[in-house]
Specification:
The chain has 356 residues and is mostly helical. The chain is built from 15 helices and four strands.
């Protein structure tokens, strides 16, 4: 990726880490569910993130979606679960392993094929034995007979790059994962499931080196596919690297902005307006009555405590704010003298109310 994207990415990742977003309860689980849902959505699934969550966690299917769509999501989740555990061992990636990974992706939705090149099963992750094109009228992928050798060469190069990479160079890790995605999808080893498997491999390589996996949302589909086409036609891998880096930055920024907004709303919902305005109360006490800030802070605590109460007694201040009885009486007397409170009743039954 270019230097501009690299700088933006590093800054966003640092901000993401400083905010502790990944440390939130269930963040990694729901982030993964989002990746899976959108990866299948790019291939035509209409299952939503909420429906996927219910499907994965509760086994609840949606009557609004076809079983094929829901099985696509279940299969891809199983593939991610398997791959996430496997990649931690840093084993060499082989053709056989890619075939097994593809079989996980297509386990319940893969078709059986009979072709001039021979019979094969997508459900078993077997390499295609027929020629395919990139959509109606699209460019043809390499001849199926070249796929095994090309895939072997890809694995060798990928393993070489994995061994040579500096794990601390985050931008290099992303570039490696984006490169692997493009190379594998260009080989197009399977009759079906190439996109899901290539995005899965990209994410697994990112997980291997501990960086936040890249989402490709269904809303990104046109831009994402166009980047694949342009990279292929221009023979310039930087097109795809920069497009993927830009998408990742865009989604990171959205997640950061959403997190900050949610925190602000939570603070607003759990804090009374009076608590938020405590500093203003302190300032008024200091400016108007020329008292020391530490005393003003104590008096402001009492006014904030009273905000949602009709009246208070001395013992309530002692119990809730930790003052001694003598100190509480003195503070309440001062607030009465300053005109913030009114005292009612004798010493034993005295109550205080906010002055109108």
């Amino acid at each position: 990726m270019n230097n501009e994207n690299k700088d933006i990415l590093i800054n966003l990742l640092n901000q993401h880490k400083e905010l502790g977003i990944s440390e939130q309860i269930d963040y990694n689980k729901f982030y993964l569910y989002s990746i899976i849902t959108h990866s299948t959505a790019i291939e035509g699934s209409t299952v939503t993130e909420v429906e996927a969550q219910l499907l994965f966690d509760e086994g609840i299917t949606s009557s609004k979606r076809t079983m094929n769509e829901q099985m696509m999501n279940l299969d891809l989740k199983a593939a991610y679960d398997y791959g996430t555990k496997w990649i931690r061992d840093h084993e060499d990636i082989t053709v056989d392993w890619l075939v097994y990974l593809a079989s996980k992706v297509m386990a319940r939705t893969g078709s059986e094929y009979k072709s001039l090149g021979g019979d094969f099963s997508a459900a078993r992750g077997e390499l295609r034995k027929l020629n395919v094109t990139a959509g109606a009228g699209g460019k043809s992928y390499m001849h199926y007979q070249k796929v095994p050798m090309k895939l072997q060469t890809f694995c060798e190069e990928l393993n070489k790059r994995r061994k040579a990479i500096d794990p601390n160079d985050v931008a290099a890790v992303y570039d490696l994962s984006f490169w692997a995605h493009f190379e594998l999808v260009t080989i197009h080893p399977w009759a079906d499931g190439n996109g899901r498997t290539c995005r899965l491999l990209m994410n697994l390589l990112q997980m291997e080196y501990g960086v936040l996996p890249t989402k490709v949302l269904k809303e990104d589909k046109a831009e994402y596919i166009q980047a694949l086409i342009d990279t292929r036609e221009e023979e310039d891998i930087n097109i795809f690297l920069n497009t993927m880096a830009s998408l990742h930055c865009r989604h990171l920024k959205y997640d950061i902005d959403t997190f900050i907004s949610s925190v602000a709303k939570e603070m607003d919902s759990t804090s009374s307006p009076e608590l938020v305005d405590k500093h203003d109360v302190v300032k008024e006490l200091v400016d108007k009555w020329s008292i020391k800030p530490n005393l003003a802070d104590k008096l402001a605590d009492i006014l904030v405590f009273m905000a949602d109460k009709d009246e208070i007694r001395t013992e309530m201040i002692v119990g809730k704010l930790g003052f001694t009885e003598t100190t509480a009486k003195r503070y309440l007397r001062q607030l009465t003298e300053f005109g913030y409170l009114e005292a009612h009743g004798g010493n034993k039954n005295r109550t205080y109310v906010k002055k109108a």
